[in-house]
Structures are given as structure tokens and as C-alpha cells.
Design a protein that fits this description.
Keywords: Membrane, Transmembrane, Transmembrane helix, Transport. This protein starts with 10 loop residues before the first helix and ends with a helix. It is mostly helical. It is globular and about 80 Å long. 73% of the residues lie in helices and 0% in strands. It has a domain of 321 residues: Hydantoin permease. It is built from 22 helices and no strands.
Length: 474
């Protein structure tokens, strides 16, 4: 394996980690993932390209990204502008996301634990991990609601029953929890099964849409669809920022999903290709459906159920929704559980995952999660743009990917900083959040704040290093 000198803590650390997380190794079923926030032993790092690709395509091929594409068209953008804005916004965040996968590959630790070297042990618990736990709950609720609305429409069309949306959401949500609680191996196996089915159904509906009798559904008509605002830079910036902020919020997830990977090369290829394929398919699918109906509706699932009400199509929509939500939300609450465990190390992973799941189900009862999508994602971006900039600057630029895993769990080690907090990271985060709300949205502020916060952090760390060196000379 490449970079072996950088990789993994010694066997004694794994023994200590197992002892401190003994609750994770006495679960009633051998099929449930035992590992929590401790490093993955080298002999368990066996995930290759295919599984890595399937996991990440499933992660990106979800109702939220499809809704972004459709909602951008519904807001008035042309089909081309909507695809470009959402696609580039998402992919811009996935560049630093891919870079941070090396921490999971090299050291077998979750991103929430790796953040301790930038923020300090307590700082990582109270800032990146707490923020990520909140985001996991929000995005779980968002995807559940999108699916619930469509399932409600399907049931009404087929049976005439007007069931309660919260009730459907609760039932739908519980179906998504199982894989996350079981752990990574089940998520990996689920991805192998789910991805071909999802791709087949999306292809089937794209064929239906392109062959609809209405000329506005035809590929050339959709391609040249201009909307009411066509290439409005302000609206493009809104959806670029939305796509970017959504995925910046998952920066620590990168290591979570890659700590079972064999090597960096496999991971980079798997994550990189999956990012392009997943983002492109999901965005195009959502935007195409919305452009076909002249931007009057931005939800691809309700459009499909309206224009194709036959039982086969409705069944396929339901399967696609179910698999989409299982894919994204199982992965969402899996990382949310690891975040919560990092905050409260005494809580085992399965319990933490269940808590995140229940909070997500509770929040999915609120339609405001969808109605104020841009506002919520903007608030998420204000936190994670600086967090991502700081972590990337620290891990990649200052430390060159090198860290001591033992020290990440040692309150007497270098990552304890000042009472568990790295003040340089805290100040840089505060500066980044303030700048985020001072910079106009049309400046693509998530990316701008990402770079400024990272640069500010590097400067502060360099000044601190020089002062420390001068103090020693005196």
C-alpha cells in the first residue's frame, strides 16, 4: 500500500481503542459494524474501486441534487444554465472533498476525528462535529420530505387515499435507518444492488420524457429552453452556492467513507469518477423534467407521476424514491452518527446513529425544510466554507497529510492545544463566518470564504510558529 510510512497507528493503539470502545465489540449481531471513531485496522482495509464508485455515485444520485437541478429551472434559469450552475457548484466542493479522502485511506480514521488536529480535541467536538450532526439531521429530513411528497401523490393516484404526510414520512424514514445502523459493509453491499436499479429506472424515464407527444419534452426543445431569466448571473450564483454549500458541509464525510479503502489511487479514481457521473446524471434528470414542463414544477418525481400515471411508472417512481432515499440518507445518518460519537465518545456508534435518525424523522414533519431550502443551505455554507478551508489548509498545506493518530486521542498530546481548542482555527472560523455574510452572494461566496479562511489560518499558524521559535531562542 502506498505511503505505508504515514499510515495506521501501531497495534497497541488498536488494542487500547478496542478497550475504550468495548461496547462496540459486543453487539448482538456479527453483521453490525463494530468500529466507531477508532482507526480501522489495516487487515480490514479491503474496499476497491467498484465499491468506492458505487457508494459515491449512490451518495450523489439523490433527490436533493435532482431537486436542485429542477428548482434552478423553476426559478427561471435556462436548462443549460441550471445544469451548469448546480453541476459546477457541486463539483467545486467535491474537489476539496476528494482531497480529504486521503486521511481515511492513510489512517483509517473518520473525518470528525481528523478535524481534532486542526481545531483541537474539544474544538473538533464542538464545531465541525456538532455542525455536521446538525447537517445530517437537516439533509435526512430534506430528502425524506422530497420523497414523502412524491409517495403521497403516488398513493393518492393509485388508491385514492389521502394519507397524512408526516405519517408517510415517519414510515419512509424508518426504512432508511436500517442500513446506517448496520454499518459500512451493509452500505457497500446495498450500493452494489441499488445503483444498477436506479440507473435503469432513470434511463427508462428519460426515454419516456424524450418521447413524450408534447414537443416541449423533446431533447432539442429542452436543450434550447431559456426560462424567464435564461442566464441571470444572480440566479446562477444562488444555485452554484447552494450546490457548493451542500457538499462543503460533508467535508469530514470524505474520510468516513474511505477508511476501509485499499489505497489512495483507487479512492481518487473511484470518488472522482463517481462525482462527475453522479452529479451529472442527477442534475440533468431534475433539470430536464422541469424544463419539459416550462419550469412550472421543479420536482422531477411529481412531474413524472403527473405525466405518467400508469401503474408501472408509479411503481418504478416509488422504487427509485425508496432506493434514492436509502442511498443518501443511510450514508447521511451514518456520518451523523460518527459525528455524534465524536462529541460524546461514551456513546456507541449504533446508538448515536439511531439518535440522529430519530431527530431527522422528527424534523421531516416540517415542510419549512423544503420551502426555505436556499436559506437553510446558505446558513450551512456560512459554517462549512470556513471549516473546509481551515481543514484543507491544515491537512494538505501545513501538515502535508501527516498526523499522529495516537495523539488525536491524547489529552496530553499536541492536539490538545489550549484546553482542547486551537485558537487559530476558532478565530479563522469566526472571521470566515463574518465574511460570508458581508460578501454578496453573486461573488460565489462559499468558494471565496473557503480560500480566504484557509489563507488566514495559514498566516496565523505561520506567525505563531515564528513567535514560538523566537521565544525559544531568547
Amino acid at each position: 500500500m502506498e505511503n505505508d510510512a504515514l499510515v495506521t497507528a501501531d497495534n497497541s493503539f488498536h488494542d487500547d481503542a478496542r478497550a475504550s470502545h468495548a461496547h462496540g465489540y459486543h453487539l448482538p449481531s456479527a453483521h453490525i459494524e463494530h468500529a466507531g471513531i477508532e482507526p480501522i485496522p489495516a487487515d480490514q482495509k479491503n474496499v476497491g474501486f467498484i465499491d468506492q464508485f458505487c457508494v459515491f455515485v449512490n451518495f450523489l444520485l439523490n433527490p436533493s441534487v435532482m431537486l436542485h437541478g429542477g428548482a434552478a429551472v423553476a426559478m427561471g434559469l435556462s436548462f443549460q444554465a441550471a445544469c451548469l450552475a448546480v453541476g459546477l457548484g457541486t463539483l467545486s466542493a467535491l474537489i476539496p472533498y476528494t482531497m480529504i479522502t486521503r486521511i481515511g485511506v492513510d489512517y483509517g480514521i473518520p473525518g470528525q476525528v481528523a478535524a481534532r488536529m486542526s481545531y483541537g480535541i474539544r474544538g473538533a467536538q464542538l464545531i465541525p462535529s456538532a455542525a455536521r450532526a446538525v447537517c445530517s439531521v437537516y439533509f435526512f429530513a430534506l430528502n425524506t420530505i422530497i420523497g414523502t411528497i412524491a409517495v403521497h401523490a403516488l398513493l393518492f393516484q393509485v388508491t385514492g387515499l389521502d394519507l397524512s404526510l408526516p405519517l408517510i414520512g415517519i414510515l419512509f424514514g424508518f426504512l432508511q435507518i436500517i442500513f446506517a445502523v448496520l454499518g459500512y459493509d451493509w452500505l457497500k453491499k446495498m450500493s452494489r444492488l441499488v445503483l444498477p436499479v436506479k440507473l435503469f429506472i432513470i434511463t427508462y424515464f428519460m426515454v419516456l420524457l424524450t418521447h413524450h407527444a408534447d414537443p416541449s419534452f423533446r431533447p432539442l426543445a429542452v436543450w434550447h429552453y431559456q426560462g424567464t431569466h435564461a442566464w441571470s448571473w444572480v440566479i446562477i450564483a444562488i444555485w452554484f452556492n447552494t450546490g457548493c454549500s451542500s457538499w462543503l458541509s460533508m467535508i469530514t464525510d470524505a474520510a468516513d467513507f474511505c477508511r476501509y479503502s485499499r489505497n489512495r489511487r483507487t479512492t481518487y479514481w473511484g470518488v472522482g469518477l463517481a462525482s462527475v457521473c453522479g452529479t451529472g446524471i442527477a442534475t440533468l434528470f431534475g433539470a430536464y423534467a422541469a424544463a419539459s414542463v416550462g419550469g412550472t414544477n421543479g420536482n422531477v418525481f411529481t412531474i413524472l407521476s403527473t405525466y405518467y400515471p400508469d401503474h408501472l411508472s408509479l411503481l418504478l417512481i416509488f422504487i427509485l424514491l425508496l432506493f434514492d432515499n436509502i442511498s443518501i440518507n443511510s450514508l447521511n445518518i451514518y456520518t451523523g452518527g460518527l459525528s455524534l460519537e465524536n462529541i460524546f465518545p461514551a456513546v456507541k456508534r449504533t446508538t448515536a446513529t439511531a439518535v440522529i435518525s430519530l431527530l431527522g424523522i422528527a424534523l421531516s414533519a416540517s415542510q419549512d425544510v423544503v420551502n426555505n431550502l436556499v436559506g437553510y443551505v446558505d446558513a450551512i455554507g456560512s459554517m462549512f466554507a470556513p471549516i473546509t478551508g481551515i481543514i484543507i489548509a491544515d491537512v494538505i498545506w501545513l501538515r502535508h497529510g501527516r498526523l499522529n493518530v495516537n495523539d488525536l486521542f491524547d489529552r496530553n498530546g499536541p492536539y490538545w492545544f489550549s484546553h482542547g481548542f486551537n485558537m487559530c482555527a476558532l478565530v479563522s472560523t469566526a472571521v470566515g463566518v463574518l465574511l460570508y455574510y458581508m460578501i454578496p452572494a453573486y461573488f460565489l461566496r462559499p468558494l471565496l470564504v473557503f480560500f480566504i479562511s484557509g489563507a488566514f489560518y495559514i498566516v496565523m499558524e505561520k506567525i505563531l510558529t515564528v513567535r514560538s521559535h523566537l521565544a525559544k531562542q531568547e
